[in-house]
């Protein structure tokens, strides 16, 4: 940790202790500074140690998004106001109290309420992603200079892509398709040929992160299933790289299922559009007969999600087909047919985890820790 950040945390701790010393009645403490995620935890520890039946404390995270040069405008007409709280009855009441303050001049729909940790992380994430965009266009500027392309023209063309706004910010088990990885690797190759190793390394890291996300998801599944999936049945829902297509090129499902096979699991696959032969081809090494035979021993291609989940130890959602949403699929029926405990791993943010937990599922959702917001 840098000296500046350490000093900031020291000031936060000092201020927290001072509040605890002088408070004569219950307080809502609002954290405004940009701080590391879970700083509120240390604040809670200090304040709760000084709580009494008469004096209690609630902590809110309300990071500021004011930019130098436009701070007053940003305050009077913000894009959004972010307010995080512990998801307890008292925490939500404190959260609503601060929302009421802001709605005197900010439309209610711009006031975003989250759990405490999401709020703390969002400020860091927003700045990191803005910096990432600058670094990305700077990396492209080096290629432009070396090739004769015009960085303003490239940036203008990219800026007309509506996906570069609020879209493509949904976490998943990883991207696939014929374009993303191929085009990124083309950029890597071009950068290397132009003797721009730092630029090549920058873009290569995007592919590395994508592979890491898939491997991380597999490790989570194995560790949750008591550190082994040998001879366990894993139902994989979805094989195409995205919904409404039969295209499997670079699909995350291929990597996941190959890893499951290596771990000697039995894999039941259901996808509404992908042809069975395509699945066998994608999971087999080209031209290696023994590999095809090994794949056929370990996988079962099913005609429905219910068939795939029958007798399964875990269900893994890999493609965001609409039919896998909990309002479209009878998860009660799926649960009844599974081994218990019945695990469900959502790699596409498709299901209502709370609803499925009420049925009895042990649910893991990518990018979420369902217990963190309440403790």
What is the CATH topology classification name of the domain at 225-365? Rossmann fold
- CATH architectural label of the domain at 225-365: 3-Layer(aba) Sandwich
Tell me roughly what share of residues is in helical segments.
Answer: 40-55%
Q: What does the average pLDDT come to?
A: 89
Globally, the shape reads globular
Lateral strand order in the biggest sheet: 7-6-5-8-9-10
Largest sheet: number of strands, sense, barrel closure: 6 strands, parallel
Structural class based on helices, strands and sheet pairing: alpha/beta
CATH C-level class of the domain at 225-365 is Alpha Beta
Active site: 179 (nucleophile)
Pfam families: UDPG_MGDP_dh, UDPG_MGDP_dh_C, UDPG_MGDP_dh_N
GO molecular function: NAD binding; UDP-glucose 6-dehydrogenase activity
Binding site for NAD(+): 34, 68, 182, 249
């Amino acid at each position: 940790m840098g000296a500046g950040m350490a000093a900031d945390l020291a000031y936060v701790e000092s201020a927290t202790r001072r509040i605890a010393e002088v408070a004569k009645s219950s307080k809502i403490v609002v954290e405004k500074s940009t701080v590391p995620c879970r700083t509120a935890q240390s604040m809670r520890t200090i304040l709760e140690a000084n709580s009494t039946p008469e004096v209690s404390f609630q902590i809110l995270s309300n990071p500021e998004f004011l930019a130098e040069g436009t701070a007053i405008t940003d305050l009077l007409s913000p894009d959004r106001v972010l307010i995080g709280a512990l998801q307890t009855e008292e925490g939500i009441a404190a959260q609503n109290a601060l929302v009421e303050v802001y709605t005197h001049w900010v439309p209610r729909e711009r006031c975003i309420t989250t759990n405490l940790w999401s709020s703390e992380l969002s400020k860091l994430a927003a700045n990191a992603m803005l910096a990432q965009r600058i670094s990305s266009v700077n990396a492209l500027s080096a290629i432009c200079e070396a090739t004769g392309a015009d960085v303003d023209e490239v940036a203008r063309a990219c800026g007309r892509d509506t996906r570069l706004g609020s879209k493509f910010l949904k976490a998943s088990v990883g991207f696939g398709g014929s374009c993303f990885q191929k085009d990124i690797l083309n950029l890597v190759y071009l950068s290397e040929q132009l003797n721009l190793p730092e630029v090549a390394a920058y873009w290569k890291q995007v592919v590395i992160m994508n592979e890491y996300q898939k491997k991380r998801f597999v490790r989570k599944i194995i560790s949750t299933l008591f550190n082994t999936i040998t001879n366990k049945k894993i139902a994989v829902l979805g094989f195409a790289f995205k919904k409404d297509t039969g295209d499997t090129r670079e699909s995350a499902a291929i990597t996941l299922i190959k890893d499951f096979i290596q771990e000697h699991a039995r894999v039941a696959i259901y996808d509404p559009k992908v042809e069975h032969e395509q699945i066998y081809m994608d999971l087999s090494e080209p031209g290696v007969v023994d590999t095809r035979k090994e794949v056929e021993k370990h996988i079962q291609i099913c005609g429905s999600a219910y068939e795939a989940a029958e007798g399964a130890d875990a269900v893994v959602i890999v493609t965001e087909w609409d039919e896998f949403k909990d309002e479209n699929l009878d998860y009660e029926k799926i649960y009844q047919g599974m081994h218990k405990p019945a695990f469900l791993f959502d790699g596409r943010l498709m299901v209502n985890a709370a609803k499925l937990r009420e049925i009895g599922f042990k649910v893991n959702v990518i990018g979420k820790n369902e217990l963190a917001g309440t403790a």
